[in-house]
Design goal:
Length: 286
């Protein structure tokens, strides 16, 4: 029985990506800008080159301000702390494996002023990294504590989660109407329907494995959608042979597991689109 992902993205030549984020971090106009400028703006909005896929350790804990999602997290022991010119330098006892932009949770025992969830500014060596923090200088000194890696940012800047196992994701659109009563000398009155807004839903179908990062993230999004006001950026690339892309913001409103077979699970999920769905057409001449 398979225990790793079935790569439908490769088989069907359509790639799907989501970036979990808080509703408060959404700016709907950013999706419109990304669609209108499909080059640099799109890669800034969602950079598929950094996508996470396949088996991963994932967890969620806390509530409200302390809520966090950890992906492939690890703990490193702090051995030294310094703060100079508003830049903190942390030294760890073993290689930290960090890169610029990674989010970590720092919990120093003595120099507690440097604690918090931060973005890595630089990694000068395999056992040191820096981040920005406005505060009084702290002379370099031995310290203890931990650095928790793999903190997933919920501000929209997280690495995309690739949904390798989607077998279908049709977009449905419904126009909501409102009746308006009009009157003129000819008809002596009539009722007409005017479209007032559209609702868009993307219905995912797929087959995944329980240890896959996309399965676990989908479950977290379903579970904490309301309590933690979670949403996603969504990008579809393809089908193969075209450069077409669809993008939007949305909220996972439901997820149903439709059958298990060992490590495999068949599922369906609904993404309620927030705002508009944008299409970047393939305008290559025939």
């Amino acid at each position: 029985m398979p225990t790793t992902n079935i790569d439908y993205a490769a088989a069907l030549d359509i790639a799907h990506y989501i970036v979990p984020m808080r509703m408060a971090a959404i700016t709907l106009e950013d999706a419109a800008t990304a669609a209108a400028n499909s080059g640099a703006s799109l890669s800034t909005w969602l950079n598929t080159a950094n996508a996470i896929s396949g088996p991963a350790t994932v967890s969620a804990s806390g509530a409200n301000a302390t809520f966090e999602i950890l992906v492939n997290s690890a703990s490193r022991t702090i051995t030294n702390v310094a703060l100079a010119s508003n830049v903190v330098t942390i030294t760890t006892s073993a290689a930290h494996g960090l890169a610029v932009g990674d989010r970590v949770r720092v919990a120093a025992t003595t120099a507690t002023a440097v604690n918090g969830t931060v973005a890595v500014k630089a990694a000068p060596t395999t056992t040191t990294f820096t981040y920005d923090l406005t505060g009084s200088n702290i002379t370099s000194a031995a310290d203890t504590g931990t650095v928790t890696t793999g903190v997933y940012p919920l501000d929209g800047a997280g690495k995309p989660i690739q949904l390798l196992n989607v077998t279908g994701a049709p977009l449905s659109t419904q126009t909501n109407d409102e009746s308006v009563i009009t009157h003129d000398q000819v008809t002596r009155g009539s009722s007409i329907s005017i479209g007032i807004n559209d609702t868009h839903t993307i219905a995912f179908k797929g087959m995944t494995v329980h240890r896959s990062v996309d399965h676990k993230i989908m479950e977290i999004l379903r579970q904490f959608s309301v309590a933690e006001k979670l949403a996603v950026k969504y990008l579809r690339v393809g089908p193969g042979g075209t450069t077409e892309k669809k993008l939007c913001y949305g909220r996972i409103s439901s997820k149903q597991e439709e059958g298990d077979a060992g490590a495999l699970v068949k599922y369906g999920a609904s993404l309620n689109v927030l705002g508009a769905t944008y299409t970047i057409f393939d305008n290559t001449a025939a």
